[in-house]
Amino acid sequence: MSAAPDGPAVSPTAGRTPLITVLGASGFLGSAVAAMLARTPVRLRLVSRRAGSVPPGVAEVETRAADLTDPGNLRDALTGADAVVHLICHRTDSHAWRTGNDPMSERVNVGMVHDLINAVRGRAGGPPPVCLFIGSTSQVGLTSADCIDGTEPDRPASVYDRHKLLAEQALLSATAEGVLRAVSVRLPTVFGDCPVPTAVDRGVVTAMARRALAGEPLTVWRDGEIARDMLYVTDAARALVTALDHAGALAGRSWVVGTGQPTRLRDLFTSVAEIAAALTGGPPVPVVTVDPPAHATPPDFHSYTVDASAFRAVTGWTPDVPLRKGLERTVHGLAKDRREQLAGG
What we know:
By secondary structure, the protein is of the alpha/beta class. Helix content is 37%, strand content 18%. Helix 4 (104-120) runs parallel beside helix 5 (159-177), helix 6 (204-213) packs parallel to helix 9 (265-280) and helix 9 (265-280) crosses helix 11 (323-343).
């Protein structure tokens, strides 16, 4: 990793190569972060519920499969780490994670963060470890502004966002105590093609792309005029790796990251349908309006974009992948997977 302007953020002990533990390394975003870190001269400990593959690169890589809801397993995963990237959250395929009906939600999304803090509290020798926490721009809740820059008061509207905020607050309090050095990076909607075969993106872009490739209509709530800030997965991963490089300047607060470009959901889904049609040879599937589900919250119907200028001023990060190119990569990747699955019987 490169050094931050104010000195190396991830400081090794006694001159050894820094050890970075990535929790949730086999997930959609986690595998992208692991792949980028593997290209840097660090030691990597990639931890997830199921054993992941070793990404190519110059890093020394260790993979572990562990149930991290066990505090002992989490403590073992953090042993000797100079930095930890916390990419674990509990989200099921249903809406239970939004409403709080899933009993594991609070345990994983909040309880594990307290376990992490307890695991590093009182560690002897060396500077406090860096903890990079991945939050969500939706933590802010319903705002009066169409563009958020991180200065807004947090009024989370869903159980998931309240859990994210509680976890973030615990880490920032631990930073004030000197237990660790936490940086929270709040991401908007992240999409893209899966970096490794075992990684699964359960986001809306992937869901709609799969429907389009199958010839099924795409559904949008109400009139589809709601706009979102869409961030391609490699840009999101690069923002997180860059945050590690600049943790010395970023620690102790949250930072919002995004493209600054609003995209209406109807336009987004129409583009997905067009790209899929070019691959299937048929006409684009229709984008139809449906009533929103009962678990929808007021922020779901509020358009917003992200002003990442504060994060950019410290790190120099900017997104590289335009929306259309990111959508093309996503749909093409899913189409390839679909062909291989059909060919395999």
